[in-house]
Design goal:
The chain is α/β, with parallel strands linked by helices and 478 residues long. It has 17 helices and 16 strands. It has helices at residues 11-22, 60-64, 66-71, 103-109, 114-126, 128-135, 146-159, 172-181, 191-206, 217-229, 258-265, 271-278, 316-327, 372-382, 398-404, 420-424, 457-471; strands spanning 2-7, 27-30, 42-43, 52-53, 80-81, 85-91, 95-100, 211-212, 233-235, 249-254, 285-293, 307-312, 337-340, 355-363, 390-396, 441-443. α1 runs parallel beside α17.
Length: 478
């Protein structure tokens, strides 16, 4: 009998498997797709020689994660490349807000709002490791640091409420913060999106928003190599439809959504728990468009050509309006567009002189619409001539996202709506969110705390519980 089986070879599934294998257990991973990686795959989606990240592309959370810091990606051959500008926010009139790795350089570039930016982020940047420990905890055993909690709490109340504009006087700084908060795929003036924005913006100055050389696949490939070195086995093209399909094991860890858990174990789950899983809310979606380009994007604003990531929407007011449209089930005429240009630091992604461009636009849940023209128009708005560089494009609508990855319900790439309630009660209101009513069965996906991102911590928290409860092993501190 195998000690443990992990279903799903995304970052969380691989992290869970590594924790278990490091404890000396015999572990197997079952992955439905033909390649490992989940939300961290890299593939030639457009033309030969153009390598595109299928989902995640820039990775501040990978450097913030206590697990991946202990794993030491560099020691395992993963080169995390740092764009000079972590993220940029172009504005009309040839201007842009630039978040440099250097907080002081960012402050200098923000003019009248520089002091406000420094007072907002300085205390968080100084304590970024403790902030990361708080944000990436299981939300049940929170590291007690009153100074960090107070600093974050005050800023959450400000940026998640009608107070959010009080400290700013110009357009760039509030637009930058709103662009980062919109990663939550939710109208940004609320506590949960504000928390996402504060965390990601802090990491921009603390650890950067790095891009792995060769693509996001490098991260999961390194994790898989270490897992197999420890004696673990990975089976791809192995879709698990029911728990009864699995061989006997003392622990089963499922890197699946609540809907996936219902599919796999629904008949065995108590009705009350099953009802709670069915009540889990999924968020708005993403239409993903990858471009093969004949050259770099001709951004009008100085500095955007040095940014790894860009938030293409315009002003704070435009971002809020676009996200409200999508949340109401409508396509925004000018959608929020997230852009990553790996070629700023990684010449391996495309043939010499050429570039790849990673983009997605927020769209309503389960949207079948191809919004590539709206994405192109938004980029053209801030980079005239972009359309002429396009050699090929690859479109994956929100509905296609769900077909490609069963965890992306309705095209929600975040594993569930990021509301304040669902940050704490994912996937169901339960003190231990990783356990299920089934003996030895755990859930370890982004639908559990701490939520989405390539950090592996959902898998780590679930695996540590399995070690204690099923094997009587006390896991080492991270």
């Amino acid at each position: 009998m195998t000690d443990a089986i992990v279903v799903g070879a995304g970052p969380n599934g691989l992290a869970a498997a590594l924790v278990l294998a490091n404890a000396g257990l015999q572990v197997e991973i079952c992955e439905a797709a033909s390649t490992i990686g989940g939300g961290a795959r890299t593939a030639e989606l457009t033309l030969p020689g153009f390598r595109h990240d299928v989902c995640s592309a820039a990775h501040p959370m990978a450097l913030a994660s206590p697990f991946l810091r202990a794993f030491d990606l560099a020691r395992h051959g993963v080169e995390m490349l740092q764009p000079p500008v972590a993220y940029a926010h172009p504005l009309d009139g040839g201007r842009a807000g630039l978040a440099w790795r250097d907080l002081d350089r960012t402050v200098e570039g923000l003019g009248r709002d520089g002091r406000a930016w420094k007072s907002l982020f300085g205390p968080l940047v100084d304590r970024w490791q403790r902030l990361s420990g708080l944000a990436l905890s299981d939300q049940r055993h929170i590291p007690l640091d009153l100074r960090v909690m107070a600093s974050l709490g005050l800023r959450l109340v400000e940026q998640g409420s009608p107070l959010w504009n009080l400290r700013f006087r110009t357009q760039a700084a509030p637009a930058m913060l709103t662009g980062v908060s919109s990663h939550a795929s939710s109208p940004p003036r609320a506590l949960a999106p504000a928390g996402v924005g504060l965390m990601l913006a802090t990491l921009a100055h603390a650890v950067g928003w790095p891009i792995p050389r060769g693509g996001s696949q490098a991260i999961v490939d390194a994790m898989a190599a270490e897992f197999t070195r420890l004696g673990g086995r990975i089976f791809t093209d192995h879709r698990v439809r029911k728990l009864s399909d699995l061989p006997r094991a003392r622990a089963v860890l499922l890197d699946v959504s609540p809907a996936g858990l219902l599919d796999i174990a629904g008949d065995e789950l108590p009705s009350r728990y099953a009802r709670r899983l069915r009540a889990f809310r999924y968020g708005t979606a993403a239409c993903k468009v990858d471009f093969a380009l004949s050259g770099p994007v001709p951004w009008t604003a100085e500095g955007c050509d040095q940014a790894g990531t860009l938030h293409v929407i315009g002003s704070r007011e435009e971002a809020l309006a676009a996200e409200r449209e999508v949340a109401a089930g409508r396509h925004a005429e000018r959608p929020y567009v997230l852009v990553v240009q790996p070629g700023v630091v990684d010449e391996t992604r495309a043939p010499k002189g050429h570039h790849t461009l990673w983009t997605y636009a927020h769209v309503p849940h389960d949207s079948p619409r191809d919004v590539s023209e709206a994405i192109i128009a938004q980029i053209e708005r801030f980079a005239p001539g972009f359309r002429d560089l396009i050699l090929a494009k690859h479109v994956r609508t929100a509905r296609d996202q769900a077909r490609h990855n069963p965890n992306y319900i309705g095209g929600d790439i975040g594993g569930g709506a990021l509301t304040t309630w669902q940050l704490l009660a994912r996937p169901a209101p339960r003190w231990d969110p990783y356990t299920t009513p089934l003996r030895g069965v755990y859930i370890c996906s982004a639908s559990t705390p701490p939520g989405p991102g390539v950090h592996g911590m959902s898998g780590v928290h679930a695996a540590r519980r399995a070690l204690r409860r099923r094997f009587g092993i006390e896991p080492p501190a991270i």
